[in-house]
Amino acid sequence: MNNGGRKRPPPPPQPSPANPPKHQAASQEDEFVDEDVFLDETLLPEDEDSLILRDLDKRHALASRLSRWARPPLSDDYASASRNVVFQQLEIDYVIGESHRELLPNSLGPAAIIRIFGVTREGHSVCCNVHGFEPYFYISCPPGMGPDDISHFHQILERRMREMNRNSKVPKFIRRIEMVQKRSIMYYQQQNSHPFLKIVVALPTMVASCREKDASFLIYLSLTIALRYSELISHTPEAEFSKMAPFRILSFDIECAGRKGHFPEPGHDPVIQVANLVTLQGESQPFIRNVMTLKSCAPIVGVDVMSFDTEREVLLAWRDFINKVDPDIIIGYNICKFDTPYLIERAETLGISEFPILGRIRNSRVRVKDTTFSSRQYGTRESKEVTIEGRVQFDLLQAMQRDYKLSSYSLNSVSAHFLSEQKEDVHHSIISDLQNGNAETRRRLAVYCLKDAYLPQRLLDKLMYIYNYVEMARVTGVPISFLLSRGQSIKVLSQLLRKAKQKNLVIPNAKQAGSEQGTYEGATVLEAKAGFYEKPIATLDFASLYPSIMMAYNLCYCTLVTPEDVRKLNLPLECVNKTPSGETFVKSSLQKGILPEILEELLAARKRAKADLKEAKDPLEKAVLDGRQLALKISANSVYGFTGATVAQLPCLEISSSVTSYGRQMIEHTKKLVEDKFTTLGGYEHNAEVCI
DNA sequence: CACTGTCCCTAC
DNA sequence: TAAGGTAGGGACAGTG
Hints:
Layout: H1 21-34, H2 56-69, E1 87-93, E2 111-119, E3 126-128, E4 136-140, H3 150-167, E5 177-178, E6 185-187, E7 199-201, H4 204-213, E8 218-219, E9 223-225, E10 232-233, E11 248-256, E12 271-280, E13 286-294, E14 304-308, H5 311-325, E15 329-332, H6 335-350, E16 368-375, E17 379-386, E18 392-395, H7 396-403, H8 411-419, H9 431-436, H10 439-462, H11 465-476, H12 480-485, H13 489-502, H14 545-552, E19 560-561, H15 563-569, E20 576-578, E21 584-586, H16 594-615, H17 619-644, H18 653-677
Parallel strand pairs: 5-10, 11-15, 13-14, 15-18
Antiparallel strand pairs: 1-2, 2-4, 3-6, 4-8, 7-9, 11-12, 12-13, 16-17, 19-21, 20-21
Helix pairs in contact: 8-10, 13-16, 13-17, 14-16, 14-18, 16-17, 17-18
The protein binds a DNA duplex (12 and 16 nucleotides) through strand 16, helix 13, helix 17 and helix 18.
């Protein structure tokens, strides 16, 4: 048994025997009315089965509830592996052609990408992508391999998998598994009495041995897989397979006792409280509420208060809690930049080496990495990256900053904006005083800490983040974490890879050395006619102009014909389109482009979102759905942007400049059409004029 | 003051 | 290392 699975001590003892239970109950009732604003009916449990832990006995209810929800430990079969994880789904995207240097560091030739999606430990359970774990496993093979070699490569891959599998001590107990493919998020339907699909991952030694044995087949991260991917049956996320998985969502918040006038630093300032709420996706109430405090804390209605004498105990209690509850998704406010790194760095300071075992890979330590993200769309943001294998971290602050333009992103103002609820800020200057007071002042602090854990969960539900992000992840085929931590281009690339694989195409590494191609001509903007118009003006608008152009004219990497090919191939005129910018593309009758297909899918998804929008009644729900369809629109537009991004993975200015040239042409044409038709000569009242 | 370049923002 | 695009307006600073 590893540390991560170590049993948490049985229900902690009542923290403060000095307070007789009766007195507690009385004071609780009093305070509940005027002080515990957040403990209103929205948070209080409704049924008997829920946790109302007014006395010691009820603590056992928590313990049993917790163990009921705790997932079974890994089988002993896995004990021999130094690191392992159980995945729900394996998918192998095997060839992307010449390697992308970014995606495949250190590899030169055509490459395979194995993507692994999903994690589970119990059959009916659900999972998300292998977040945190590198979502791509890189395998490279000798340079010079082309599309014709795909099947050969396939076989090599398969053989290698088998070999590795033989080497491992893991028995094969899965014969047939039906998988639900949702790309990023999946619902696993148990077809088999045995719950496990097993994949043992990343035995570091195997990397070395593979290199020695077969230099032409480098494996950067080794895998041992218990079933062959050909045995997987994947379903598109439709009908019953489009259901949302009941993720287990942990929302947490920490409080630190900072020194006066200083922002808390993990090198100096202790973690004094950690509040946790655990909710099943789709349910309105958390099924676990607790708070871990340093020093005693008076009881709180509906909350399991666990008090400890040392900070070390607090941290370890939290680690054990995480491992026991085994959440799929971890949320909070600014957790990525503050809470999570703070806990880890604090544990480092205190020398608690066994603390950062929080993920689903046994004995894998969580590390903190500094990252910066900068793009024109989202601006530059510095952040810390903490990978917790197998758990999605969803920072509501990040999501807010990406999705909404607000004047302030404090939890307080965001909650006020979306939930009409304030957070009753405890000013940071009095946190230390509250901590140094008595059990009652620490209780007050705990209530606020809990509220700070509660608000992100409310935001998550209210803004339908799980639904919207899962939708986006499904459509684009990237893990959810990418949606928060990366830009638009990875989404386009991911869709390209998916489509290319379907069609047995390889994507070249187009990023040439010194790609100095400059910029290209953009859209026409007609001159506006300024003035105050009393009568309404008719507006003309193209529906998704650029995507429509790409679809209509079949513009794609794989339909572009170079000038020399035009000469060589002597293509009949009726098979090609010549764009206003002078490029040639074959028509879809000859070969349908990948990009148009991707766009069709995106626009179909957008259509679905718009249909939902029509159904929606609640204004906020409407706003959220509107945001979703807008996000899909932006994704569709970024397909065009992707081709014009000269610093991206696969620039193709022939496509982007063709799109804009068609766009200009169409706008001119429309203007002419309208102005020619609606004239006084044609019997209309006025001459029409088309401007901005 | 006229003009230019930069930054920042928004529209599409 | 990763990063959708171009067009265009307004505020502001610097310069002759």
